[in-house]
């Protein structure tokens, strides 16, 4: 594709924040965009923003975003001349790229042959070796017999990794530290690779403990020019999924950095690469060496940090290159300014083993002054059908320390309701000494939080302020109206000459927080804490302000109604925290309805599909035994027995789609048996 290609309308074969990002790139060049969407995404922001939109199928990705024929039909129906795959879904599917071109459309990405070659980890490493790029020692041969793989494993020695040739994201990967474990590791990796990718081929390579993940962004045109746009560090990972990315890679010897960049360009040139791509490496600080890991033949999730430090719009250049335009930049024109950090914002609960969160976003109040790439807004529904990442927060500062401070400040001003996010966990990672002093590595999370991570909660003083915020929210009568006109838990004490007063209960504590006062002076007494008195107290919009001991303060305080209580999102010294409070009316209602699900019921924590039911009626189980495996957001969730007892009823079967909070299993608790 060396000549000019003409198109004025681009179909975006993706969803969420990346679809909106590509839409912005199209608009910048005066191109129209076409959104394709599933039934579940009908009301999503990316659909509303596009110039044209077509429903291509049901909520399941196989019925929509992975449905090649439906996507091509949408392109034909809307007159799109090009297709941008974004990332994920079909973005690195060589067959899809070929089908797009066979349909007479422009694929905005590399040649199908380059995608296929780099998609095979074995072929990619061979190409890297041929281009003079260092690779980890190992075995990548065609003989995939168990005997040959075991022979090579013994020759390689431990520790080593078994990795799926067609894999990614940690699937089909096993770490072997004892040769006695090798047969089982190889067999299970091959089985997982076959199930996930339809290809059981694996390879072996030396495991580099405490390695960092460093990658180089490349950009190639159809005229033979290839540039690098610097490097990034993506070492903070969980289950081989990146959490935080930064550019440039910090604490990297300049000679190593220069070699990595030059090697990435050589490899891209050797395979005739066009469009944006990323060459990924493992860097071993102990040896001062780096090794080729893989090449991603698409736009990366973390591309905004490269855009921030270079000022180069990667999506714009993908579109220009797809039109056949030559790069107008020389390598010397690429300059690097400051430091950028990206935080992946996911709907999940890190304190509960990263349990996915689904439901409707009732509050969406992001910080101002920073880049936020997002696919949701207030009212959006986070579905169990798709990946849990819903947004990316990007900051740019003159240096790394400043970028960390800016990112923390942004997260401390970010309030979200209805669906839990991982912001507090990401904040803890940024402030961890290992990250700040470059001791972090790709498998370092257990070292950073050896006892697990606990979500920060408001301390007694913050709980007192949260109660005052709720008090003001529920009682505009504080400004002088009759208490009869107020809502919530105000009591008719003012007419008797006493100040208004009310009690609020932390949902985890039976002792009340007592709030008294009138006008603009209020006092709150939390259980076991000291009285907090606020003068000139006011709740204006989303800010609680006043004076404590004569010192003025102002904090973000969003108040929203949860299912059976009130939630106050309060800005604290530990970041944004949530205080769950009940009024007296809520307490009465809670007692009347018997509270939450009984201990004898296992309920679905979120919507999802039942993958397994591991028990039958009459089975005796221990507390913590897995009863049901639920698939949600592309992850398998093991649901444990809440108590020991005997299974009496089963309300679900494998293949069922269930709503959140519905009963799945009923138990007769042990004390009753």
TrEMBL record:
Its cofactor is biotin. The keyword DNA damage does not apply. InterPro entries: ATP-grasp, BC-like_N, Biotin_BS, Biotin_carboxylase_complex, Biotin_carboxylation_dom, Biotin_COase_C, Biotin_lipoyl, CPAse_ATP-bd. Residues 591-668 form the Lipoyl-binding domain. PROSITE patterns: ATP_GRASP, BC, BIOTIN, BIOTINYL_LIPOYL, CPSASE_2. Keywords: ATP-binding, Biotin, Ligase, Nucleotide-binding, Plasmid. GO terms for molecular function: ATP binding; ligase activity; metal ion binding. Pfam families: Biotin_carb_C, Biotin_carb_N, Biotin_lipoyl, CPSase_L_D2. Residues 125-323 form the ATP-grasp domain. Residues 6-450 form the Biotin carboxylation domain. The keyword Ligase applies. This is Acetyl-/propionyl-coenzyme A carboxylase alpha chain.
């Amino acid at each position: 594709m060396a000549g000019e290609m003409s198109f004025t309308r681009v179909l975006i074969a993706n969803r969420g924040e990346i679809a909106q990002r590509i839409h912005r790139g199209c608009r910048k060049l005066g191109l129209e965009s076409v959104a394709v969407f599933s039934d579940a995404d009908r009301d999503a922001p990316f659909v509303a923003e596009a110039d044209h939109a077509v429903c291509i199928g049901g909520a399941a990705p196989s019925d929509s975003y992975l449905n090649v024929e439906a996507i091509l039909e949408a392109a034909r129906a809307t007159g799109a001349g090009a297709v941008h795959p974004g990332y994920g879904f079909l973005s690195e599917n060589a067959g899809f790229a070929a089908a797009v071109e066979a349909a007479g459309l422009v694929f905005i990405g590399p040649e199908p042959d380059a995608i296929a070659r780099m998609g095979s980890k074995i072929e990619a490493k061979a190409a890297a070796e041929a281009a003079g790029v260092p690779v980890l020692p190992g075995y990548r041969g065609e003989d995939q017999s168990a005997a040959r793989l075991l022979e090579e494993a013994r020759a390689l020695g431990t520790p080593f990794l078994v990795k799926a040739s067609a894999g990614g994201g940690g699937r089909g990967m096993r770490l072997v530290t004892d040769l006695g474990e090798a047969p089982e590791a190889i067999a299970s990796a091959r089985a997982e690779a076959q199930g996930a990718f339809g290809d059981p081929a694996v390879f072996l390579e030396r495991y580099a403990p405490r390695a960092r993940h460093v990658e180089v962004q490349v950009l190639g045109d159809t005229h033979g020019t290839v540039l690098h746009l610097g490097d990034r560090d993506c070492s903070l990972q969980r289950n081989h999924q990146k959490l935080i990315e930064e550019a440039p890679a910090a604490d990297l010897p300049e000679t190593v950095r220069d070699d990595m960049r030059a090697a990435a360009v050589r490899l891209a040139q050797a395979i005739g690469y066009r469009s944006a791509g990323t060459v990924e490496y493992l860097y071993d600080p102990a040896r001062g060496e780096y090794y080729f890991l893989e090449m991603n033949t698409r736009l990366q999730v973390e591309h905004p940090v490269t855009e921030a430090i270079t000022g180069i719009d990667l999506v714009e250049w993908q579109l220009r290159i797809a039109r056949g335009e030559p790069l107008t930049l020389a390598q010397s024109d690429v300059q690097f300014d400051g430091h950028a950090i990206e935080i992946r914002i996911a709907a999940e609960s890190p304190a509960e083993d990263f349990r996915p969160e689904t439901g409707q976003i009732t509050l969406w109040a992001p910080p101002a002054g920073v880049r936020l790439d997002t696919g949701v807004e207030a009212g959006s529904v986070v579905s169990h059908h798709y990946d849990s990442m819903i947004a990316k927060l990007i900051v740019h500062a003159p240096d790394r320390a400043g970028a960390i401070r800016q990112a923390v400040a942004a997260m401390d001003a970010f309030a979200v309701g209805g669906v839990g996010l991982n912001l507090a966990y990401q904040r803890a990672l940024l402030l961890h000494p290992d990250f700040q002093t470059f001791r972090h590595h790709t498998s370092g999370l257990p070292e950073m939080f050896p006892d697990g991570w606990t979500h920060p909660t408001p301390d007694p003083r913050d709980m007192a302020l949260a109660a005052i915020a709720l008090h003001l929210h529920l009682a505009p009568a504080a400004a002088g109206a009759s208490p009869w006109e107020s809502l919530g838990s105000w009591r008719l004490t003012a007419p008797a000459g006493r100040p208004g007063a009310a009690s609020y209960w932390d949902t985890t504590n039976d002792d009340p927080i007592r709030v008294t006062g009138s006008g603009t002076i209020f006092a709150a007494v939390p259980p076991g804490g000291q009285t907090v008195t606020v003068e000139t107290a006011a709740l204006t919009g989303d800010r609680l302000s006043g004076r404590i001991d004569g010192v003025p303060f102002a904090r973000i305080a969003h108040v929203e109604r949860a299912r059976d209580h009130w939630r106050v999102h309060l800005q604290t010294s530990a970041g944004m925290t949530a205080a769950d409070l009940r009024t007296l009316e809520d307490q009465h209602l809670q007692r009347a309805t018997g509270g939450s699900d009984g201990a004898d019921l296992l309920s679905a924590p979120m919507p999802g599909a039942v993958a397994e039911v591991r028990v039958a009626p009459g089975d005796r189980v221990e507390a913590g035994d897995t009863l049901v495996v639920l698939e949600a957001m592309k992850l398998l969730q093991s649901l444990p027995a809440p108590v020991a007892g005997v299974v009496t009823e089963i309300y679900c079967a494998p293949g069922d789609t269930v709503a959140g909070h519905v009963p799945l299993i009923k138990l007769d608790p042990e004390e009753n048996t």
